[in-house]
Amino acid sequence: MAMVEVSGVRKAYGGRTVVDGISFTVDEGEIFGILGPNGAGKTTTVECVEGLRVPDAGTVRVAGLDPVADHDRVTRILGAQLQESELQPKLTVGEALELYAAFYPEPADRSALAERLGLTASLTTRFAKLSGGQKQRLFIALALIGRPRVVVLDELTTGLDPRARRDTWQLIEEIRDSGVTVLLVTHFMEEAQRLCDRIAVIDGGRIAALDTPSGLIRRSTASTVISFIPSQPLDGAELAALPRAASVATEGGRVVINGTDETVNAVITLLARRGITARQLRVTDATLDDAFLDLTERF
Ligand SMILES: Nc1ncnc2c1ncn2[C@@H]1O[C@H](COP(=O)(O)OP(=O)(O)OP(=O)(O)O)[C@@H](O)[C@H]1O
């Protein structure tokens, strides 16, 4: 079942279109990622899903409900992560949980939620004194306090150190495992690749691609990376002209070519023809990072 349906949504600010006909559905129980460069229209899109913004055209449904017309019912189904500025610095973790629990008719058990998010020891700590990771865990707890069926997490791990980020990823997976659908806005390829079942790549207010992480890598023109140190210098233009070569770079004597299997075969043939040996030859799958650059540049 589709938990979120976005269909032909458009939004302009002061005559400038920033969301230009976006459509996607998020199935119940999946982690759906929205990935895109700065200013692509990601936040505007999810704010339409949350009912915080009204689309100029198109429709949004959350569990079949209109987030604007059925705002109260949608608020009970959808948990949104707060922005930092929305919490009083003097509020303690326990008080914040109590305050937000009061908004819902059947809130989650506060102490169980605090325990699950590793906040039990910080219940009496004021918001201003929490670390970045603790703040993010509190925001997740507040998004879950109403026992939502879907949560929207917008750039949740920005500013966290690598360990806190990985801990947060684990939490997001646990949320999904508990049956909650997750709509995740992120800048981090590694995060999207690790967590998301499907990803919509948004660029310039439009969907540039929508697929599983491995599907996105496959569909990019740069799904394979071949790199080696040639025994003699090679002409970059000649390499760039090889079949399906998407990019060619030289990094400290090492030639790095993004392309497809066809490119790999062509490189090997070229080297053999020239009698050039390739030292430290490596052929690897491209990462989502490579695919993202390729997909957003092409769009
Ligand atoms: N209330 C507003 N009034 C005018 N312009 C806005 C408003 N909100 C957003 N914008 C502009 O709309 C564009 C899309 O913004 P949005 O926040 O949706 O992008 P984003 O993909 O989430 O970007 P980022 O990754 O930088 O957060 C940006 O150019 C932004 O400056």
UniProtKB/TrEMBL annotation:
Annotated source species: Streptomyces paludis
GO molecular function, one term: ABC-type xenobiotic transporter activity
Annotated protein name in UniProt: ABC-type xenobiotic transporter
Domain of life: Bacteria
Enzyme Commission number(s): 7.6.2.2
Keyword DNA damage applies: no
Keyword Iron part of the UniProt annotation: no
Pfam families hit by this protein: ABC_tran
Membrane topology note: Peripheral membrane protein
A Gene Ontology cellular-component term: plasma membrane
EC class: translocase
SUPFAM superfamilies to which the protein is assigned, alphabetical: P-loop containing nucleoside triphosphate hydrolases
Residues of the ABC transporter domain: 4-229
GO biological process: response to antibiotic
Subcellular location: Cell membrane
Keywords assigned by UniProt, alphabetized: Antibiotic resistance, ATP-binding, Cell membrane, Membrane, Nucleotide-binding, Translocase, Transport
Main location: membrane
Entry's family note: Belongs to the ABC transporter superfamily. Drug exporter-1 (DrugE1) (TC 3.A.1.105) family.
